[in-house]
Every structure is written in C-alpha cells, then in structure tokens.
Design a protein that fits this description.
The protein is mainly α and about 110 residues long. About 70% of the residues lie in helices and about 0% in strands. The chain has five helices and no strands. The model has no long low-confidence stretch (mean pLDDT about 90). Belongs to the GST superfamily.
Length: about 110
C-alpha cells in the first residue's frame, strides 16, 4: 500500500480490508483484547501492524482502509490497546511519523 498507486493501490487496499474483516469477524469477539481482559502477545503483535497501518493510511491519503463503521470491534480494540500504559508510553509520535512517511512515499512514487 505504501509504494502503490492507481489500480495497484486499490487492489492492495481491498486485500488489506479483507484481512481486517477476517480479524474483525473471528478474532476479537466481545473481548477487550485478543486473549480476554488483559493484553497479550497477540495484541502486541497485531497492535504494531494496526498502528502502522493507520499512519501509512494517512500518509498515502487515498481513502480510508481501517474505517470505524466497517471494523467497530477492531476500532474498540485499538483504542483499548493504545490506552495500556506501557503501550501509550512507547508508541512513536504519530504526527512525526505521518510527515516522515508522507515525504518518503512521495519520493518512492516519483522514482517508480
């Protein structure tokens, strides 16, 4: 998604939404975290993917992939995840990341 444009970007966004839909339907359920009420290794692994996805999505600026109305359980989960003190204290600064990746993506797309 980060390096794509045009039809390739659309295809990649659709594939990403399909993957998120599978997680939405089968992984979380009504639990706060993947394993229940406390954070576990699955949350940490998937949390890094979703946090980066949100940043890349904003940097790409071609429409939303991780939409709240389409993935309500995942949105509730990521909100809970980001509020865990050790996670909150160690997440990279989002605005800096968006700016960095937006500039990096523009350079990659120009050179392709």
């Amino acid at each position: 998604m980060f390096r794509s444009k045009g039809e390739e970007l659309e295809k990649t966004m659709k594939e990403t939404q399909e993957m998120l839909q599978t997680v939405e339907e089968h992984a979380i359920g009504e639990k706060k975290f993947f394993g229940g009420e406390s954070i576990g290794i699955a949350d940490i692994a998937f949390g890094s993917v979703v946090y980066w996805l949100e940043v890349i999505e904003e940097a790409v600026g071609e429409g939303a992939v991780f939409e709240a109305h389409r993935f309500p359980r995942l949105h509730a989960w990521i909100k809970n995840f980001k509020q865990v003190p050790v996670i909150k204290e160690n997440l990279p600064e989002r605005d800096w990341m968006v700016t960095f990746f937006k500039n990096r993506r523009e350079a990659l797309v120009r050179s392709a």
